[in-house]
Amino acid sequence: MDILIIGIAGGTGSGKSTLTQHIKSRFGENVTVINQDSYYKDQSDKPFEERVRTNYDHPDAFDTDLLVEHLKALRAGQPIQRPVYSYVEHTRTSETVQLSPTGVIVVEGLLIFQEPRLRELMDIKIYVDTDADVRILRRIVRDVRERGRSLESVISQYLTTVKPMHERFIEPSKRYADIIILEGGHNQVALEMIMQRIEKHLTVEAQ
Fold it and tell me: Structural domain of residue 85, as residue ranges?
């Protein structure tokens, strides 16, 4: 199987997930999605208070070795057991999800372009670029509604780690992108170009 690996990176709230959802919705079971968040390191051996203080926007927060290993396995046609991460407990759960290789694999995450070993595995690298004020508002809504965070904790985390790490690691990784998309999944012109590229790959693969 000839597998197309697409990386979608960008800052928090930039629209990475929206773009990924559009791709998954269009091509269904032909696309496997891997979110970098699933590969946050296991912290079950640490007290909860210490887990809360972890800088989750730093490259060291991720088990990149495992993500690289899993992408190589999928490309080789082998299924993987993807970790499951709990945003409430700030660590992995004991569960895993089996993912099987498909014609297209989408890897989504804040820092996937920051790591050379990940970049080397990607056929197409897309960076979603959205204004900072839009991104922080989206993050507040998401974290309060979906992850049970307080408004104060979201703002504090943004100012102490999210914003500095974005400027230090995420924004500079934009230079590795093949395509830079403004407003992510809301950019219909760019979205259609990506869809055509994926459709072409799947058509050739099916022949």
Answer: 4-206
Q: What is the CATH number of the domain that holds 184?
A: 3.40.50.300
What's the CA gap between 136 and 155, in Å, rounded? 8
Percent of the chain with pLDDT over 90: 70
pLDDT reported for residue 154 = 83
pLDDT digit string (tens) for 87-109? 889 999 999 999 999 999 999 99
Global pTM reads 0.90
What is the chain's mean pLDDT, rounded? 92
